[in-house]
Predict the structure.
Amino acid sequence: MDSRVLPRNITPVLHRRLGEYPAIALIGPRQCGKTTLARSLGGRYYDLEQEPDRLRLDLEWDSVVRSGELVVLDEAQAWPEVFPRLRGAVDTDRSRNGRFLLLGSVSPSLMRQVFESLAGRLSLIELTPLAVSELVTDAQRRRRWLHGGYPDGGVLRGRGFPVWQIDYLTLLAQRDLPSWGLPAPHRTTERLLHMLAAVHGQEWNATQIGKSLALSYHTVNGYLDYLEGAFLVRRLDAYHANVRKRLVKRPKVYWRDSGLLHALLNAGDENTLLQQPWVGASWEGFVIDQTLTALQHADRRWRAWHLRAADQREIDLLLEVDTELWALEIQLTTQPRRGDLARLNANADLVGADRRFLICQRSDRIESGPQVVCDLGGLMEYIERLP
């Protein structure tokens, strides 16, 4: 199965935004499918990491501006000089939408000055690696948790994992992250990646990581910013509210792609994965990533946190979806206990959650008022049905 024939769930959102904005930035990690999706739209294509394409764009700029075609600028962050030109082109005719599609492997948090030059003229859309809901066969869907979602990383054909993932991270550490501004030797970056895998799903302790690397916690936090900006990890902030309990304030850190996590932790097959003491944390991170991806595909507005009180009461994922607050408990089991739902409700009552989800691996869904017990697929269907 070739990834080029797989429809991407974000495509309707992309088409809609092209009709509403003069420029769109489609951002996401390297090798997640941005170029394939963009080229399927047609128009003029330029890879701005390549000097010949930068020269060609420079020489053709006047005709590009006059053209009625969509102009695709791949890896736009590699040539910051193009952004003032884009601003000028957009401002000369603000009534024309769908003119420029920028592709980037770096988030705006790392390229703030560049993206700010197009403030009010640009809409941001994130493309993730392949989601479970985008896969065609049962075998692909079964592989998604172990192998991750990168099209070339084994999820489609069952080949390449975990060698592809290790090579991918090595190239990022040695080439891409330094070019994007990460001021760390690549060996330090590689050590940090392994340490982040070891603390996946745990509360972030920069001081502890810094001691292991002989770095200050300020430096480690700065490095984490770059890894987050490269779409490798996600910081899930702690929820703060007046709940009459002392709440933990540290964020949790999760690897965004489960295949990268498993490659770093030497879980090369499903049996090995299921025997690991950290398998529950891996599943939790996977469900969180797929949930947030589904909300992006549905074009919903959301914010996400975790919640943990000093008495150990916690909510794995707390979501603000439009105007509602959702509380999610995530378990790697097919047989949740009656007390699990009671505990979820008690914890959700702390923050007045409107909806409560117990996500497990049972195939049938039980729904009663604001309470839902279902598997990951059931949660995806629930999100798709949102009005």
Summary: The radius of gyration is 22 Å.
